[in-house]
UniProtKB/TrEMBL annotation, chains A, B:
This is Terpene synthase. It holds the Pfam family Terpene_syn_C_2. It comes from Streptomyces aidingensis. Its EC number is 4.2.3.-. Belongs to the terpene synthase family. Residues 324-333 have a biased composition (Low complexity). Residues 311-345 are annotated as: Disordered.
Amino acid sequence: MVMTATGIELPPIWCPLAGARHPRVEEIERRAAAWLDRQRVYRDESERRMVLGTRGADFCARFTPYADEEGVLLAALWVYWACCFDDACCGHGPLSAAPERFARLAGQVQRALEAPTADSSAERFLPPLQDFARRMRRMRSPVQAARFAHAHRAWLSGVVWQIGNRAESHMPDLDEYLAMRRLAARGEPVFALLEIATGTETPDREFHRPAVRALTEMAMTVATLDNDRHSLHREPAAGHSGQNIYTVLMRDRNLAPADAVQEATRVRDRILARFLRLLPTVLAGAGPELRIYLAGLCHGVRGNAEWGLRVPRRPAETPPPPGAAEEPLEWAPSPADDDRTPLPAPSVAWWWDRALE
Amino acid sequence: MVMTATGIELPPIWCPLAGARHPRVEEIERRAAAWLDRQRVYRDESERRMVLGTRGADFCARFTPYADEEGVLLAALWVYWACCFDDACCGHGPLSAAPERFARLAGQVQRALEAPTADSSAERFLPPLQDFARRMRRMRSPVQAARFAHAHRAWLSGVVWQIGNRAESHMPDLDEYLAMRRLAARGEPVFALLEIATGTETPDREFHRPAVRALTEMAMTVATLDNDRHSLHREPAAGHSGQNIYTVLMRDRNLAPADAVQEATRVRDRILARFLRLLPTVLAGAGPELRIYLAGLCHGVRGNAEWGLRVPRRPAETPPPPGAAEEPLEWAPSPADDDRTPLPAPSVAWWWDRALE
């Protein structure tokens, strides 16, 4: 049991999936930091500390522990870039409640990713993204690059949605939140990095199967909700105005903060339980690339949770060196809710469709 | 030579591509109208007249003249739906300068397309879109449905961008306009309807080749610019505040309206000329499905132009019956510009890359 800054008890995370970490994590962190310095992704020393403090290399090393070093590094470059962009333009800063300006920036960002010739002079975040895109096109196939680009646009569309809600002081209900937040919290591009890091290309007809899509969305959503938990751990909790699973449930279900934490855990565990029940059926008929992809979803969920539990709570805290032996974590032995019926959230209820099995 | 309402001469369109129209266009129009009535896509008789006046069935019959009737009908349902949605929520109406509210609506619309269980009770445009999506999933493969969904999100992201510009009274320059308008003007989903209508599935490794993507973007952009021309023909032109190729060039290049019309024709013809030069190289190495797709791009450009030239200028005008024999149109014999260098617009300059050839 962990306490938040405001004294709310956070139950341990339920995640019966194996964890691993890429053995070259130190070298990957060093090389990513050198890229950040070269590309001047950050504006000053304090931003540099913030972005390195997110430990994006550690995140990617857990997310894709069996990819080769170059692949994990490629993924880490985007993760660091996106942290910095997110902090300056999405979650904070002058655009964070200005959807009209952010929508244009999002258009430019997306085009910088897609078009090798796009003008990147207008905005400091564009040249490093173009450098990442050049590396991605050099190392990966056009199919993989296209999948990443689609995921990237989905992310930006979710951020505009979230910023629009903020501008209107609109608090989404659970259904809207689950549809919006998976996008805004980088779920789509981060999980698209699985194929970018490993270099595996799942054939289209398997990749776009509804059951594979459902598993992907469930994995993203569990990771997103775990990130809300990690943020609650780091930031003042009760009553704050941001859109997260706790404020959403407090408003939607009229719950006190501590009850919202319990309910959020049940929502999250019901999704992971459905993921774990559907997974073997899909694995049974999967080809070799899809098997790697599905294993990646599992590493993604577990790696994200473990990164979130281990990353220092405040940027000022000195983390242990990346390769250091790790203290074991406490995990919940069973899900907080074993209800097998669909969540009362129409936008995701189809994950429970029998036809997927 | 055609005159606009304000007396500006519009040169004829250059388009050396074969045109055709599906022979069952009358039946398709009748069936699509019955669907619109059943689904209550419009709000009143005047909206019904407006949406039927767009002649979406005629558009699709020219766009995909060799698809089977069920496929053209499926495409037409979306085209009619999108016209009505666009008119009520994007180009006009209370959301047309309210990006914060439109971004949320866009999120709900996209989720209604993707998730069969999504709640569609909040907005009258959602149930008909879900009905279209159900039909699409029944008739087409998950790969085709996923491609359409990506294109659909790209469209909505472009509309938010355009609405944000309107809210800020920001007039884009040519580079921004070419990146934004292809999206906002439905270029992506309309051209994704090529595969939805024909049922052809281009293998992923061909579909995502950069040269195929460049041809697709060029075809979309030519069609978009032709639509700006058609709108100029129908609406008062000079000095109005909307974002179109003429107002963009007037502002960006400091041109009088008549000169902006000439310059816009040169921009558009340079893109089509590049498309026509690149096409044979790509066709040479194309498999059977890609050949059908590339032929579709050609029908798309030509069909869109011809539909725009033949659709009545004002909703009140009675059109000839859909199957009637057609007067020949006047076409320009040669491009207004034979400059083979890239357009001075970085976001699209890569279409001229030698590596694509």
